[in-house]
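Provenance and format

Records in this collection were gathered into a single text stream. Each protein contributes a sequence line and a token line. The two records reproduced below are adjacent in the stream.
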Amino acid sequence: MTAEPIELETRVAARPELVFAYFVQPELYRRWKGNSAELDPRPGGLYRVVMPTGHVVLGEYVLVEPPSRVVFTWGWEGNPDLPPGSSTVEVTLVPDGDGTIVRLKHGGLPDDYWREQHVGGWRRYLDRLAVAGAGGDPGPDAP
């Protein structure tokens, strides 16, 4: 049995075209999440992020629709409970005046433990994205 999907949103004071780039360009991705990112934003392309803890998120892009939507699979390298590609993250970007509403849905997590772990993580990272996307510095991504 899988847990209920995570559904979160934030507002970024930047247009969708810029916010979209934070999900597909490694140098921008690292500004808000992870120590390194290998991103090949096309269906079947690599999504790999090394987190500050040293853990590696691994998946692949499923859908890339600039500047409004990106979908990628998600899992943890070396973790049999949530292996690479076993869950799915969908990000939708909605214009909101001079900004963007970022809606994130993470489904397919195996249970409530993993759901709660990812709710906290995604909240933290969406807050960091809001700062970085608006041109600010969210500071180093520490464990």
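Adjacent record:
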Amino acid sequence: MKEKSKQLNDDVRIDKWLWAARFYKTRRLATEAIQRGKITLNGTRAKPSKTVKEGMSVGINKDGFERIVIIKGISDKRGPAPVAQQLYEETEESLSKKEAHILEMKSAHAFIRTEGRPNKKDRRLIHRFKQKNQ
């Protein structure tokens, strides 16, 4: 019987692996992402029950950004973050896109200036603007 349970640990579902590798906080979120088509396995759309093997590539489209990782380890248990990071390796192309995306987000955020809560005069101007545009 122990051989069967050991063999089952080798066959890990993609939703469970995504959860164990800490891409998603819960298995339910991972399953929903897969069903929405946000996860690809070797370039094709995956189903939550698809089993993963070492060497497979996983495309993860999350928060408007796509990451491509290569599976280096299989686990069905969620562990600490350093252990989870050993389960995959991000491709060079994905890393360069990630850096460009971070720089783009920082530069976009630099133009947004807020001075805190609107005062009474600002609220009146906002209200007039909304009334005029309706």
